[in-house]
Amino acid sequence: MKVLIIEDEPLAARRLQSLVSRILPDAVLLPPLDMVKNAVLWFQQNTPPDLIFMDIQLADGISFQIFDQVAVQCPIIFTTAYDEYALRAFRVNSIDYILKPVDEDDLRRAISKYQTMAAPQTQARLMESIGLAMTMLTKKYKERFVIKVGEHLRTIETDEVLFFFSLEKASFAQTRDGRRYILDFTMDQLQELLKPERFFRINRKYIISLDALQDMISYTNSRLKLILKTSDDNDVIVARERVQEFKDWLDR
Questions:
Q1: Residue of 29, 54, 103, 173 with fewest CB within 10 Å of its CB?
Q2: Is the model's pLDDT at 121 over the cut of 70?
Q3: What DSSP designation does 122 have?
Q4: Fold entry, domain 2-140
Q5: Are the C-beta atoms of 219 and 242 separated by less than 8 Å?
Q6: Cα–Cα separations (whole angstroms), residue 84 to 96, 139, 221
Q7: Closest Cα partner for 182 from 232, 207, 147, 153?
Q8: Which residue has better confidence, 69 or 251?
Q9: Which fold has domain 144-250?
Q10: pLDDT, tens digit, for every residue of 152-205?
Q11: Model-level pTM greater than 0.70?
Q12: Beta partners for 29?
């Protein structure tokens, strides 16, 4: 039995490998994949495994984008940080999910469900599930934020925002006209709510859009320094561990 893990977090991938090896000691664990484009290339060049564990958000996009480019004809168990309400939409046709962080009991339950399937899931059923999940995920990303201006409330469209940043334990959105608005979200929450194709978290303090970039400068220790439009911060640095992901994001 061959098992493929598609997961962009190295620690999560290693933990999942360890748990799967414990539950399925005879399984052959294939080298994990961490990006949509790598997974597409792998499926184009290899025969399908018997089972896939697949994270929803990968380093270069949402894993459902894989199915737009290649046919994947084997059962999939999703691993995800999305809430259970959204996940119910695609928990059909023997595709299961495990909510992160992965718990061994949840993993055993999902694998047991796979083992009791009478036959491999057909591509048609798989695509039905994926389509339903994709619909839910598309609705998840925020299109606008409600902000308070004095005694008044107004909305700002997400497309108006050049970047989000944290300052003194508060989160702000900075718009194209240079105005900043305080938000009732943490940076971690914002990272989950924003479209990964449009926004990228370069470090703990900043989440930027493509439109925010004015200049990029090579910096010490293989890092990048960014000049952002409408920003007077001269110390906007892409964290060293995020530089390659950032370049991949730019190169899509």
A1: 103
A2: no
A3: P
A4: Rossmann fold (3.40.50)
A5: no
A6: 12, 15, 41
A7: 147
A8: 69
A9: OB fold (Dihydrolipoamide Acetyltransferase, E2P) (2.40.50)
A10: 889 999 999 999 999 988 999 999 999 999 999 999 999 988 988 899 999 999
A11: no
A12: 3
The answer to whether 89 touches 113, Cβ cutoff 8 Å, is no
Q: Which two tokens stand for residue 206?
A: 């900043």
Note whether 163 and 208 are within 8 A (CB). Answer: yes
The answer to whether the bond into 10 is cis (omega within 30° of 0) is: no
Q: 79: which strand partners?
A: 55, 98
228 forms beta bridges with 213
User: In angstroms, how far is CA 197 from the centroid of its own chain?
Assistant: 10
Q: Is 189 in contact with 238 (CB distance < 8 Å)?
A: no
Q: Which residues contact 167 (CB under 8 A, 6 or more apart)?
A: none
Per-residue pLDDT at 192: 87
Q: Within 13 A of 152's CA, how many CA atoms are on the CB side?
A: 3
Structure confidence by residue, pLDDT tens digits, 43-100: 999 998 989 998 888 888 888 888 888 888 788 888 877 655 455 445 433 467 777 7
**Residues 102 and 15: beta-carbon distance below 8 Å:** yes
Alpha helix (H) ranges present in the chain? 10-23, 36-45, 84-87, 104-115, 123-140, 187-193, 243-250
Residue 2, both tokens:
């061959």
Contacts of 132 (CB under 8 A, 6+ apart): 89, 90, 92
